[in-house]
Amino acid sequence: MLRRLIATAALLTAALTLAPPAAAADAPLRDLAEARGRYLGTAVTAGKLTGGYADVAAAQFGSLTPGNEMKWGSVEATRGTYDWTGADRVVAFAEAHGQRVRGHTLVWHSQLPAWVTGGTWTADRLRTLMTDHIAAEAGRYKGRIDHWDVVNEPLNEDGTLRQSVFGATLGESYVADAFRAARAADPAAKLYLNDYSTDAIGAKSDGMYALVERLLAQGVPVDGVGFQAHLVLGQVPASLEANLRRFAELGVDVAITELDIRMPLPATEAKLAQQKADYAAVQRACLAVTRCAGVTVWGFTDSDSWIPDFFPGQGAATPYDEALAPKPARAGLAEALAPDTPPAPGVCSVTYAVTSQWTGGFTAQVTVRNTGTAPLNGWTVRWTQPAGQRVTQAWNATATQTGAEVTATNLSYNATVPPGGSTAFGFNGSWSGTNPPPTAFACS
Ligand code: 9MR
To answer: Which residue of the set 153, 157, 213, 241 is catalytic?
Structure first.
């Protein structure tokens, strides 16, 4: 048979990039989170749970936290007189919409009734007041609360015990007593220790870590640690994920409990884009740690955020604007929660060359190059024969042809192609008339 080398080989490239599923951005955040085995929650204000506010809260979030309604000062402003109106409303709303509730909070130095802060208490008396309060509140909602923030903000910035009325009067033992009382009142609830400025690895989170270690060593029923994550634009701590992980490795769950990301007003497109990246980074840090149960935003709309009151000149800290329109931050959460893309990003290119041609026959070499950043674990190249050519024999790949369509897949030994690497396969084909190269390749 006469073989003739073709001097000019036909070279073609084709690349295919897999895009994230288009539907993910529009899906309710609560469903996206649920599909990843987590919850996405929000703090709410009971009195606002009507109209559009209620619609977004119900549709988008799988967990609700009463922003203020379960605090001691809200439920027992007058000693012995309980007002559960706001708390009941949030719990009933959540139950009506298939949502969980994070109870917030049983023991905190702030938003206490004046009669507690103004009183003079012996250690025994204060301890009993505290455990009675826990029994009353956690008991009322027994079986209906997913997580309880049992003790909120127990630490100073340097990681030592805050000298609140509880810390100063009772020492660290109040934390253990609070958890034991909460377990007795509602055995099904996961019991959390919650604080702010513990998001990064540092003095305060080291103090929290040591506290949790001591509590667990004493058999105190601490189930989880909450990281409030009241963050500043562009300053998601680089150590957030590692910090969550080290607590998880102690044997407790972790959660982001009060996420908001504030910016100097006015909000600009650039600041909102940064905020989107920041929200996504926090969500991803939680997803990266198996024991991170979920993320709660501290208010889902800028119209219901504490930031402008506490940080004059700052705001726009939540994922929805004041008119309940989703901001880029909402898309950041959705994108981070979108279903996992396949491990190989499917980015490859194809080079095709006819290396020899003779009357009625030809040999071609096809090179698959991985242009992505992750290994290709198996590959498929598809093309259409433009002029009736037929593949008669292939090597280094399995090639099948149906009509004009050819599909070539890897063999076991050349399935993996590292980033930047390539692999080649060849085939013999038949032709008549002309033998033009395929015009495009799909590679995945
Ligand atoms: O969102 C709450 C706001 O409405 C109250 O005015 C404020 C009073 O301190 O508390 C806010 O919530 C806090 C939460 O209970 C504990 N972590 C810090 C939160 C922001 O201050």
So the answer is: 153
